[in-house]
Write a structure and sequence with these properties.
This is MBL fold metallo-hydrolase. InterPro entries: MBL_superfamily_lactonases, Metallo-B-lactamas, RibonucZ/Hydroxyglut_hydro. GO terms for molecular function: hydrolase activity; metal ion binding. By secondary structure, the chain is α+β, with helices and mostly antiparallel strands. It has one domain (about 1-275): Ribonuclease Z/Hydroxyacylglutathione hydrolase-like (Metallo-beta-lactamase, Chain A), CATH 3.60.15.10. The chain contains 8 helices and 16 strands. β14 (about 250-255) and β15 form a beta hairpin.
Length: about 280
């Protein structure tokens, strides 16, 4: 799909099975399971949705998914599939990892930033995209290095530290246009440095990666917030703001974990209109 100078390719960087209760927080199961049926272990399908973007000669990757570094035991525990989904998608587009110029993610949780790094044939952790600048919120990086006990399981040092050690991290604070048309907007809520990634061709022509602010289609309801969110009130405020703007300007939203038609538009009443022209 094209938005102005942006050529956008939707991708599924694999996925996993998340706990339904954690995914929908205080929302009663009798409500959420009508839309996202759970298996006998109360797990629901959770895709890792990202994009590859070409823009004025540059290649941008947003959201890298889980990657392939998890141990076999851990991968089985969380039901990971297609851990190499991002690299497969790049090959289909005729791109090599060393041709990627910019990498960003909505936040640094293992299911969003796991693909920042990979294991070499000798088993060492190496950068997946060795030439790319990786843009993250300073607040997110700081928290990832020293999270609270509840959040510790969400961050893996091997995803983040090799990129920092190689000098390939670029920090922003708040809202920043890191290259023409690529805007990062800190929302907080889910994590301190959670951000929206906006590909903005014009005020009324933009694609927004929602991450875990709106992870699944049921999360389009403002009060439906994941249990993992650290600042629920901030999540509510930022989600309401995003949905208002998206409806007013008809922004294309790409939901961070939605398995079925993850890209689409929302209207003032909150109705979802899938975008059928995006192929993954």
């Amino acid at each position: 799909m094209r938005l102005g100078d942006f050529e956008i390719h939707l991708l599924r960087a694999g996925g996993w099975r998340s706990d339904g209760g954690a995914t929908f927080g205080v929302v009663p199961k009798v409500l959420w399971e009508r839309q996202k049926p759970a298996d006998e272990q109360n797990l629901i399908r959770t895709d890792c949705i990202g994009v590859v973007v070409r823009h004025r000669g540059r290649v941008i990757v947003c959201e890298t998914g889980i990657g392939s570094k998890l141990s076999e035991k851990r991968a089985r525990q969380v039901g990971v599939w297609q851990p190499e989904g991002l690299l497969v998608a790049l090959r289909k587009l005729g791109l090599r990892p060393d041709e990627v110029d910019v990498v960003t993610s909505t936040h640094l949780h293992w299911d969003h930033a796991g693909g920042f790094t990979r294991r070499s044939p000798s088993g060492e952790v190496e950068l997946t995209f060795p030439r790319a600048k990786h843009f993250v919120q300073q607040a997110e990086f700081d928290f990832a290095l020293s999270p609270d006990p509840r959040s510790r399981a969400g961050y893996y040092d091997d995803d983040i530290l090799p990129v920092a050690d190689a000098g390939r991290l670029e920090f922003v604070s708040g809202e920043a246009e890191v290259m023409p048309g690529l805007v990062l907007r800190q929302t907080g809520g889910h994590t301190p440095g959670h951000q929206l990634v906006v590909f903005r061709a014009a005020q009324d022509l933009a694609c927004v990666m929602t991450g875990d602010l709106v992870g699944l289609r049921p999360h389009l309801r403002v009060p439906w917030i994941p249990a993992a969110d650290l600042d629920v009130l901030r999540s509510l405020e930022e989600k309401a703001r995003l949905l208002r703007e998206a409806a007013e300007h008809r922004w294309l939203l790409v939901l961070g974990h939605e398995p079925e038609q993850p890209a689409g538009y929302v209207d003032a009443a909150g109705s979802w209109s899938p975008e059928d022209t995006l192929e993954d």
